[in-house]
Every structure is written in C-alpha cells, then in structure tokens.
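User: ok so my PI wants both of these folded by tonight, can you help

Assistant: No problem, let's get them done. Here's the first:
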Amino acid sequence: MPTYPAQRVDLTKFAWLSIAAAVATICLKMSAWWVTGSVGLLSDAAESVVNLIAAFVALYVLKLAARPADKNHHFGHSKAEYFSSGVEGVMIFIAAATILVFAIRRLMDPQPIEEVGLGLAISVVAALINGAVAFVLMRAGKKHNSITLRADAKHLYTDLITTAGVLVGILLVGLTGWYWLDPIIAIGVGLNILWTGWRLVMESSSGLMDESLPKETNKRLREILTEHTSDQMAFHAFRTRVSGARAYMEMHMLVPGWWTVQQGHDEMENLVDLIQAEFPDLRVLGHLEPIEDPRSYEDEFLI
C-alpha cells in the first residue's frame, strides 16, 4: 500500500527544482534549435515550455494541498493535487498540437539541418538535467504519495524519451541527408506526448471520483474484519477511498445492544488500533450499531 501521510509535508522545494530544470532545458533546447534549424529540436523545446508552466501550477497546488483543514474545507485541501495533474495533461495536449502543426508544415517543405554536432551536444546536456530531476521527483512523489510530483516526473521522463528519439533522428538526418526524417520525428514526438497527456487526465479524473484503495489492500482489510467476526460481532458497509495524499476506510461494527457504550467503544478502538498497526497511515472511521436491530441492516450495502 502506498504511504498516505497523516500530516502533509511541504513539497514545494521539489516544484522549485522542477522550475529551475525547466528554465535550464528551455534555454539549452532553444539554443540547439537555433543553431540547427531542426523542427524536431523545436518540438522538444516546446515540450519543455509546457514543463515550465506545469511546474508553476505544481508549485501553487502543492502550497494549497499542504494547508490544514479549515471551516470551509473540513477534510483539508489534498485533492487540489488532482487539478495539477489535469492541468498538466491539458497543457501537454496543447504542446502536442503545436508540435504537429510545425512538423506537418516542415514535412511539406523539408529544410537542411546545420551544426548537427553542436545541436546534439546541447540537447544531451538538457536530457541529463531532465533525467536527474525526474528521478528525484518520482522518488519524492512515491514517498509522499504526491500525484503532482509523480505527474511532473512522468512528464520529464517523457521529455527525456522524446529528446533521445529526436537526437537519434537528427543524427540520422545528418548522416543520410534525408531531411524529411526531421518532421517525421517531430510528428512521432507529438503523438507520444498526446498519449502521456491522456494518461495524466485519466489519472486526475480517477482521483477526483474518490477511487478506492488498491484491490490487494481492500482484500487484506476485509480479511481483518472477517477474522474478528463472531456471533456477537459483525461488519458491513465497508468502503475505502483515496483523497489526494490521504486514504480513508469506513465500516459499521454490529455488536449486542445490551453492551455498554464503553464496551462497544473499546472493541472498536482495539480493532482500529490493530488495522492501523498494519496500515499506519490509513484513517479508519467506524460506526457502532446494535446487531439485533433490523434498522442496523438498512445500510448494509451502503455506497
């Protein structure tokens, strides 16, 4: 199960790292395009511009998600991260459309590429920067369960793959003189970026719809409840959800109506402690009901 921290950690330093990397790679890739005139390198630079915009969006969203609950947002602000992922996906679509337009125009009118060696060298430096930052962001995103950082890292990894493909293509153009390869590469880059954007938008949509915890986690939680089921104790209305960087479990515990409030409370607290011993970052909410009362079963299949 991923880590869902009870207290949101300030992750804005990673957004600033992403911004710095985006600025550096934009300068490098635009320089590579300037000296070569390659539309493939121009498409690569366009994706880095999207990285910069997405990094600023991530910075704002991470600040917002770190805010504690308030009178208007009783469950905190962690879901704000899904908007960042969605915005980044949309920005990727725009970048891809721009790349495809440039590429198709160049395909209709192929142009020679100049200073291939220098352009490739500059792009390699940009790729190394993106690769290093993507690794740091992905590791932090997994550690803190931040969809914003993971989305940013995935975009940078895509950018890295894009750059590698462009470099190979530009090298082939320089060796063969087949200028039409340059726009073909750019079209491939655009289509690859579209696929990345689609996946980010889908991931964002799933989060906004309160997606359940992973199947294996739900299975284990049900097993724990089954292990504690007896003639005097039963459970229903079990459900889980993920909200940004937090995870929740809800269930109803049915116990004898003649039990005291203290006895029922103790059983509930003991069970919650046991669950959280195995899943320490899971927030568990339980509701006590009398097992003999027919009304207790009206919400048995609560959804």
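One down. Here's the second:
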Amino acid sequence: MDNNFSNAQRAEVLTQALPYIRRYNGKVIVVKYGGNAMVNDGLKQQVMEDIVLLWLTGVKVVLVHGGGPEISDMMNRLGKKSQFIDGLRVTDRETVDIAQMVLSGKINKTLVNLLQIKGGKAMGISGIDGKLIEADVKDEKLGFVGDIRNINIAPVNDLLEKGYIPVISTVGCDGEGNIFNINGDTAAAYIAGALGAERLIMMTDIAGILKDKDDPDTLIPAVTVKQAKELFASGVISGGMIPKVECCMTAIDRGVKNVIIMDGRIPHSILMELLTDEGAGTMVTGYGNE
C-alpha cells in the first residue's frame, strides 16, 4: 500500500464503504469466475482476497467457476484435440472425464485452498454433489454437453448456513449416471436464480457492454432487459457478448435482482463494484421490462 496514504485516509475509505457493507450484509452474492482473472496468478490472488473480505463482512458469497483454458491445456497434454461448434466444446466420453478431473479436481480444490489461505472458510462441491445440477443432452452432435433441467439448491444453502463459501464446479449429471460439461455462465445464472441472489457478478475479459466493441470508453454502465433486447436487434451486442447477456437475462428471469458484467482483469474489481459509488462494468436489471 502507498506509504503516502495516511491512516486517516484509510479510515475515511472504510467509513465510505460502510453503507454498502450494511446493504449486502446477510445477502447472497454469486460470483462467476473465469477468463483472464483465473489464469493470471496475481489477479487470482486479488479475487480471492475480495471474496474473503466480503465474507468477513457478512456477505454470503457463492463462487461458481469454469476452466475452459485449463481443460484445453490438459487435453493437449494428453494428445487430444479440442473441437468447438458454435463456441461450445464437443465433449465425448473421454473429454467429459478430463473436464470433470480438471474442474472438480484441480481447479476447484486450488480455489478452495486459496480462499482458506486468505482467511476464508470454503468448501468445494461440483454440480454432481447432491444432484445440484441435473442436466440432459443439449445437442447430440456436442456429446456430453449438458442442458440444465433442474437445480437442487439445498447443498449450497446448507453450506451457507454453516458459514462456508461454496465453490462450485460446473459439471452436471442425469438419472442414468451420465456426467455433463455445463456452460459456466449458464450454471451461474441458474444457481443465482435458485438462491434468489441479490446480485450475480460475471467476470469477463472485457469492460462490459460497449457501444463500440473496440473502444472501452463507450461502456454502457446500465441496461434493462428491454434495452438489452434492443441492443441485440441493433447489433451493438454481438459475438461472444450475446451468450453472456442472454445468461444475464436468464438470471433476471429467475429472480436475481441485478447482474453485473465486469472486467475481471481490473484488480479488486469486485470490491469496486460492491463497495463504491462508481461500480464497475455494466449492470443488467429487469426494470423497464414490464
């Protein structure tokens, strides 16, 4: 920390955060974690610090994570080539085994360990545990890519009631014993909805919704679902941002109060969003959608 930053200034910063701490105390915040913030070790440390700080102030934080790049890396190491159709990984039986191993093993337990090192109390589960995420085949040509049909949220509520930070890997299952790779953004939207979360924070590798996708200064700070649909129609929301915003709308439809699309490459962006006037990224709400 800057030595020129006096104790009085530090105290002032903390008092300014007090109304926000009060607002979110006891509320559920779901963080969808992925992208550059996950593969950059320095950012990863800061994200974990943000989550533990919120947890220590009484916020019920649920961390939902993906891990596409690490799955691809493991497949390369095993000599298996990744294939994608419309941005979704073609997932045969061997690939879903690799996804389960990487997501529910290496990544999940690494994040749990980091949260505990930072002073948090965390417990890692997958979408298979307690049949948290029940799924069917999304499309036969994609193999074991799952389409969510039900969320059994009880295991997550149990962990929250016991004071844990639940860390959830996005694999699912069906009644026949099949395992499915689940899109992390979609899983986060469904889980946040089932929890009636105050807010879903979706960490990405861009600033948010931009009027001009090549100019970060054209950030749109807030949109309603109705306005988002208009931005789809006009082509402002395009490419990889389309499924992100669709997941935001899914979360709103399922009862989440608002969703933030946030640049996870900015240090401590979660704290900036929740504990300052300025916020970060684009907020999607249902207001004006009547």
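The mean pLDDT is 89. The first strand starts at residue 28 and ends at 33. Good luck tonight!
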